[in-house]
Amino acid sequence: MNPVNYLYLAALLFTIGATGVLIRRNAIVLFMCIELMLNACNLALVAFSRMHGNLDGQIVAFFTMVVAAAEVVVGLAIIVSLFRSRHSASVDDASLMKL
Amino acid sequence: MSTAAVHSLWTIAADPIPRIDAPKIEYGQLSPVLIVVGAAIVGMLIEAFVPRRARYYAQVFVSVVALCASFAAVVALAAQGYGTTKAHIAAMGAVAVDGPALFLQGTILLAALVGLFTFAERRLDPAAHGNRVDSFAAQASSVPGSDSEKAAVKAGLTTTEVFPLLLFAVAGLLVFPAANDLLALFVALEVLSLPLYLLCALARRRRLMSQEAAVKYFLLGAFASAFTLFGIALLYGYAGSVSYAAIAQVVDGNVPHITPALANTMGNDALLLIGAAMVVMGLLFKVGAVPFHMWTPDVYQGAPTPVTGFMAAATKVAAFGALLRLLYVVLPGMRWDWRPVMWAVAIVTMLVGAIVAITQTDIKRLLAYSSIAHAGFILAGVIATSRDGVSSVLFYLAAYSFVTIGAFAVVTLVRDAGGEATHLSGWAGLGRRSPLVAAVFAVFLLAFAGIPLTSGFTGKFAVFRAAAEGGAVPLVVIGVIASAVAAFFYIRVIVLMFFSEPRPEGPTVAVPSPLTMAAIAVGVVATVVLGVAPQYFLDLANQAGVFVR
């Protein structure tokens, strides 16, 4: 199959993720949407890697997975601490600081 | 029948596995980063094995030694000429060792050392149950206001993990301006960001606000880095490589041998333009430029003040370094495309930062908007696309970082019963109650405003001159107007401190330990020296203003 199709899929997934971040309100769902964006990046990197016939893109994709895992550790810790003190993971409820 | 012959009845020999050469790593040239990472790992071992009572002292000792050693390594590299004649690219093309990288690494390390002093301060908060405490939560996992938190405070716990976290962040910050391929850029971006997200959540007072700031910073930061990564994917697709030099060759159109796939993608300008825009967007987010600035005031206000000071100074230095390298090394061939966009971003950033700051009533938010305005001024130097532009930005960043850390260190001193008194009304009449602290803060504010004989003036003059010589005269005019607007609210704070009556139940000024005193003193000395006798440092920045390609 033409690798360009995978790029369209990657762009679509990235857009779905970005839209989700903008319209959803639960911090965990936001976070999952960001993970979707990162995985869309991985798909694009691997598809480009296949098109160019070199491995750079696949190596970047591996690093992205490691970074995403580290981000889950830090992100869930922060979100859980917020949830435990507020009993809500909604990003709209967190509004102590407004202009 | 021989063994080999029997073997060949049902097998055939595959091609020999190609040799994979071990990568050549120049450990000496990477030593500033390696020292800091090593010390951070030692810090984690200290958390695991050293008794609680001794951890604080062990952590502070290891961190100070590591930052000093790393700074010495940077100076040694610069003295050997790696900043000028021997500039080259280390670690198989991943990390550049050149003038801008070494200059910014030195600045980041000094800022981190001064920031570390404010992290280690333990005399400002009243001792809880006989234990000295710092600005960080007794136990980050305990729910604010709960019994477990009270127990943790009573037991005298302190979060000494902040020191290894600081060192990990510094390691990322050191690589960020030196990253010479997109992969190193992305990894450094995450290594510097993740510890900072955590540090933001660790305030001892106003913990709900601190956690809220951390969640906002984390979600927006992760969102921005996803954009950066997609931009990296597109640039890789465009050029078939993640190395800066290779991408620059493709952008400039002088590639030695073109593969069919490359011929196909390098004609596709959409990949280049969208990819470059997304990567630059991620960097502008870290810098805090409008329209990617929305996180700045909330995070600066909610984070523990020592973290805010460190983050405001060091992150800005590293992110501008990375932005400069990307625009000057990878994308100079398309400067006619990015310059108009950066013009617009710089103008909006200067104006929004300066104008919105006028309406602020919280000193930390005020400094946050001021940092946004300063990002705009520095962008004016970035737009110059000349060697003067690079060196003026380097000088500005060095001058700005010490003023910032000093100013936030002063903010930690002004306290009432609830911790720091950050509302501006509490600062009224501070000059009568404690003239020295108010005078020092006034020096920092004057430097922010760019009044002559302070470092802020020298930096602003250098940046605006470079921009004007680069043909951006309208930008300079708007910059000067924005500076005038900004000067208004800085002066307003000075007037508030010196010419209004102190409130009877207003905040008091805590007497700090020598650590915070040293941080503030370094800030004042740097402000005055870089303002009165800047020539040596301007020459240094000028020598350092050439990127290796």
UniProtKB/TrEMBL annotation, chain A:
Gene source species: Streptomyces thermoalcalitolerans
Identification of the protein by name: NADH-quinone oxidoreductase subunit K
EC numbers: 7.1.1.-
Keywords: Cell membrane, Membrane, NAD, Quinone, Translocase, Transmembrane, Transmembrane helix, Transport
Membrane topology (UniProt): Multi-pass membrane protein
Superkingdom field: Bacteria
Record bears the keyword Transmembrane: yes
Protein localization: Cell membrane; Membrane
Residue ranges crossing the lipid bilayer per the database entry: 6-23, 28-48, 60-83
Role noted for this protein: NDH-1 shuttles electrons from NADH, via FMN and iron-sulfur (Fe-S) centers, to quinones in the respiratory chain. The immediate electron acceptor for the enzyme in this species is believed to be a menaquinone. Couples the redox reaction to proton translocation (for every two electrons transferred, four hydrogen ions are translocated across the cytoplasmic membrane), and thus conserves the redox energy in a proton gradient.
UniProt lineage: Bacteria, Bacillati, Actinomycetota, Actinomycetes, Kitasatosporales
InterPro entries (alphabetical): NADH_UbQ_OxRdtase_chain4L/K (IPR001133), NUOK/Mnh_C1-like (IPR039428)
Family: Belongs to the complex I subunit 4L family.
Reaction equation(s) it catalyzes: a quinone + NADH + 5 H(+)(in) = a quinol + NAD(+) + 4 H(+)(out)
EC primary class: translocase
Self-association state and partner proteins as the record states: NDH-1 is composed of 14 different subunits. Subunits NuoA, H, J, K, L, M, N constitute the membrane sector of the complex.
From TrEMBL, chain B:
Membrane-spanning intervals of the chain: 30-50, 57-82, 102-120, 155-176, 182-203, 215-239, 270-295, 307-328, 340-359, 366-387, 393-414, 435-455, 475-499, 511-533
Subcellular compartments: Cell membrane; Endomembrane system; Membrane
Keyword Transport: yes
Keyword Transmembrane helix: yes
Bilayer topology: Multi-pass membrane protein
Record domain NADH:quinone oxidoreductase/Mrp antiporter transmembrane: where: 179-484
Chief localisation class: membrane
Coiled-coil spans in chain: none
Catalytic reaction list: a quinone + NADH + 5 H(+)(in) = a quinol + NAD(+) + 4 H(+)(out)
Keywords: Cell membrane, Membrane, NAD, Quinone, Translocase, Transmembrane, Transmembrane helix, Transport
EC number, UniProt record: 7.1.1.-
InterPro entries to which the protein is assigned, alphabetical: NADH-Q_OxRdtase_suN/2 (IPR010096), ND/Mrp_TM (IPR001750)
Subunit text: NDH-1 is composed of 14 different subunits. Subunits NuoA, H, J, K, L, M, N constitute the membrane sector of the complex.
NCBIfam families for this protein: NDH_I_N, PRK05777.1-4
Purpose of the protein: NDH-1 shuttles electrons from NADH, via FMN and iron-sulfur (Fe-S) centers, to quinones in the respiratory chain. The immediate electron acceptor for the enzyme in this species is believed to be a menaquinone. Couples the redox reaction to proton translocation (for every two electrons transferred, four hydrogen ions are translocated across the cytoplasmic membrane), and thus conserves the redox energy in a proton gradient.
Family recorded in the similarity comment: Belongs to the complex I subunit 2 family.
Name assigned to this protein: NADH-quinone oxidoreductase subunit N
Species per Swiss-Prot/TrEMBL record: Streptomyces thermogriseus
